[in-house]
């Protein structure tokens, strides 16, 4: 088991034949911000993302496109999923594909262990199956079709007809783990979060668990069951194992011990797989369950969850091409309480960009750098005697840093950002009240001007450090403008949990010119986005 300094965080692995939309990017950015935060805090951090490439849905899509499933997956990974990571500045440590040899080989090892230990048996199965979900549907997710599907049973999620499948399959004895799972939820209430997600999972398990069909014999696109190659492994059973195969399970026990267990970020629609099936699988294999499973909410457009079939998905580039990747990252983590559903609108994005990023943070940075340049020939002056207003700024910075770190530890990213933004508001108000441009006109107030501008500059230093996991491009520019690189070293090497310590920006540092961090965007450009 990893020690306390290790932080291993994962996104779900996404179906390759889905087109990446802002919902996928939202999860990626949240995981990336948490990873950057822990990495900069000095923790042994590892961020995993990747793609899920097996299953009947992908087989059918590849066939419809006149190619093999592997060629289809290769094309989509290269053209869609890897470019997404660059578009939104994801600094992942690994990218796993379920077609990787390291994954397929060790899935078979895991499955063989469960079979040898008596947790897998053969049986007959008949049930309604959704190809879109790659899942036999529980009664609660089966509804009567309407319109062209009237008289048929359809998936409540995809609104497409279900298929009645009858197969000889292999089953995982998941029903054996209901009591152990309930005990886990009781003993570790933080295991499933937020609270609404935990309540949903507990309620589901209390209703009783059925054994899980974990193989298919009606198609062959998947990992072969090691003791019966006429079957392939059920795509979800295969996919969930990526979290351990990526960090050495079955082949590098030292790395596995160092990294595992993980924190999983997932959309709430796949919460049950991660908070019920996955820990049961791990218990059966004698492995540690994850640290935490966090089911975040959906991004809604026009009040509905984005859907490929309903053509409501928004590509991340539709936003980043206009507003940039920093604004994308900031907006979704500031505007939405992480864990709850949130509605996206172009109007809200544009308003926050202008008010919070351009006017609030960007203008603050530009003004401070410009005044240091104008009044002190570009050299950060030493502070003289601190007055009550200056000490209050220091207190706000220290509290913001502590509050942000505490919020990040509970994955409350929105609260962390709100805490950091108190520094932006405080510094803007401080400069307005202190009026350094007025102080500069009176030589007798030269020392007071030094203190005010040092206070503002060191406040910017703290902001650059605290915001760097969220808006890495803008903060890197600010760090260079502050001249901090030579004196303090690179921004991503700053001790994040000391960001609130006052006076870390050395007096005498030479600042550099700063272009607008968040340039003005014309209204007609926003409307056309």
Automatic annotation (TrEMBL):
Note the InterPro entries from the entry.
Anticodon_Met (IPR041872), Met-tRNA_synth (IPR014758), Met-tRNA_synth_2 (IPR023457), Methionyl/Leucyl_tRNA_Synth (IPR015413), MetRS_core (IPR033911), Rossmann-like_a/b/a_fold (IPR014729), tRNAsynth_Ia_anticodon-bd (IPR009080)
**Which Gene3D superfamilies has this protein been placed in?**
2.170.220.10, HUPs, Isoleucyl-tRNA Synthetase, Domain 1
**Keywords in UniProt for this one?**
Aminoacyl-tRNA synthetase, ATP-binding, Cytoplasm, Ligase, Metal-binding, Nucleotide-binding, Protein biosynthesis, Zinc
Compartments, as annotated in UniProt: Cytoplasm
Q: What is its EC number?
A: 6.1.1.10
Q: Can you name one GO molecular function term for this protein?
A: metal ion binding
Motif segment ('HIGH' region): 14-24
UniProt: Zn(2+) binding residues: 130, 133, 155, 158
Q: Where the protein is mainly located, per its record?
A: cytoplasm
What is the similarity comment for this entry? Belongs to the class-I aminoacyl-tRNA synthetase family. MetG type 2A subfamily.
The record describes its quaternary structure and partners as: Monomer.
User: What role does it play?
Assistant: Is required not only for elongation of protein synthesis but also for the initiation of all mRNA translation through initiator tRNA(fMet) aminoacylation.
For this entry, the protein name equals Methionine--tRNA ligase
Q: What is the lineage of its organism?
A: Bacteria, Bacillati, Actinomycetota, Actinomycetes, Micrococcales
Q: Which gene encodes it?
A: metG
